[in-house]
């Protein structure tokens, strides 16, 4: 599927605030389709310059300056423990909102905005007590494919992210002085 960030951003703007909890933005990581709730998506950005920040976790790519706001960017592949992949023309950053904070998540490719009804969502698989699957909202089914529906709060909130968001605030304070 061809990435058209303008039409995807337009779809996001139409959906925000409409109360359709079954709409998800789907994207690829390591040949697996994932999805996040569309209401959490602020916008989709093509690759742009990322400023690295020393002593951040290995999954943290750095920060971007988005219209004067400094936003931390994480590589979702690395956060999930996957090997690092070479950026391509399809690689993009999905800016999401978590409460008052914004975070960019870098993915290999954004697919589309897709409606997934509750009848097509199964609970996350149970693999046993040693594997944490709290970050999975459910397993969506669409057109014969399985889509992993992600819980962004479980993925992006924690001590590493708290450090990154604190740095974001400190950098913004310096920029506004």
Question: In CATH's first tier, which class applies?
Answer: Mainly Beta
User: What summary fits the major beta sheet?
Assistant: 6 strands, mixed
What is the CATH-assigned architecture? Beta Barrel
- How many helices? The count is 4
CATH topology description? OB fold (Dihydrolipoamide Acetyltransferase, E2P)
**CATH superfamily membership, which one?**
CheA-289, Domain 4
Order of helices and strands: HEEEEEHEEEEEEHH
**Envelope shape:** globular
How much is the average pLDDT?
81
- What class do helices, strands and sheet pairing give? alpha+beta
- Beta-strand percent range: 35-45%
Distance between the termini: 44 Å
Q: Whole-number radius of gyration?
A: 16 Å
Number of domains: 1
Percent helix range: 10-25%
Q: Which consecutive residue ranges, at least 5 long each, have pLDDT under 50?
A: 12-21
What is the tally of beta strands?
Answer: 11
Report on this structure.
It is a single chain. With 177 residues, the chain is an alpha+beta fold. It has one domain: OB fold (Dihydrolipoamide Acetyltransferase, E2P) (Beta Barrel). 21% of the residues lie in helices and 39% in strands. The chain contains four helices and eleven strands. A six-stranded mixed beta sheet has the order 8-1-2-11-10-9. A hairpin with a 2-residue loop joins strand 1 and strand 2. The longest helix has 18 residues. About 6% of the residues have low confidence.
């Amino acid at each position: 599927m061809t990435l058209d960030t303008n039409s995807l951003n337009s779809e996001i703007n139409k959906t925000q605030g409409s109360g359709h909890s079954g709409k998800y933005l789907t994207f690829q990581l390591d040949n697996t389709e994932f999805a996040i709730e569309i209401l959490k998506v602020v916008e989709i950005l093509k690759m742009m310059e990322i400023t690295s920040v020393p002593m951040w976790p290995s999954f943290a790519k750095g920060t971007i300056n988005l219209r004067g706001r400094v936003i931390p960017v994480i590589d979702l592949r690395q956060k999930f423990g996957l090997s690092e992949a070479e950026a391509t023309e399809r690689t993009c950053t999905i800016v999401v909102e978590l409460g008052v904070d914004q975070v960019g998540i870098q993915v290999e490719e954004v697919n589309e905005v897709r409606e997934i009804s509750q009848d097509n969502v199964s609970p996350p698989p149970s693999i046993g007590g040693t594997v944490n699957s709290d970050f999975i909202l459910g397993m969506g089914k669409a057109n014969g494919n399985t889509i992993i529906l992600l819980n962004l709060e479980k993925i992006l909130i924690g001590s590493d992210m708290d450090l990154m968001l604190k740095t974001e605030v400190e950098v913004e304070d310096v920029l506004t002085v």
